Request: fold
Amino acid sequence: MIVKEIDLFKGIDPKIMEEIVNICSEENYTKDTLLFKKGEEADSLYILEEGSIKLVIENEGSITYSLIDPGDVFGWSSMVESGLRTASGICATDLKVVKIEREKLDKIFNLHPDVGLQVLKRLAGVISERLSNAYRDLLSARGHDTTPSYG
Reply:
């Protein structure tokens, strides 16, 4: 299963990794399916296996972030305290994902807090990279220097 191969879970004790694999489910969705909607309760984390998904953030404007690489993680709002979706997820193609329910993953992390902390740190890296890419894209679209300021 792809879960064992992605950076988010690399190096985790094999026994704990097996616990994580046991709570995962593989799911298939068809093109144009709304997987989740911004503002909804974030109850699951997803790992892309095949296809592509559009993450759409709408306010007064709209930003779309596409994920196409196997192993890409999305639905990370399920891992943070507010637990609400920050974007809508729409299948750009037929999609195959691994779904991990928040409640089940939380139980494992409560039993193994060191693993939970390790995964959350790695997830923060994923979020940071996406935020940096979004800054760069926004600045580029405005015709400004594309070196973002993070401070």
User: Anything to note?
Assistant: Strands lie at 24-29, 34-36, 44-50, 53-58, 62-67, 73-74, 88-91, 95-101. The mean pLDDT is 89. The helical segments are 14-22, 102-111, 113-141.
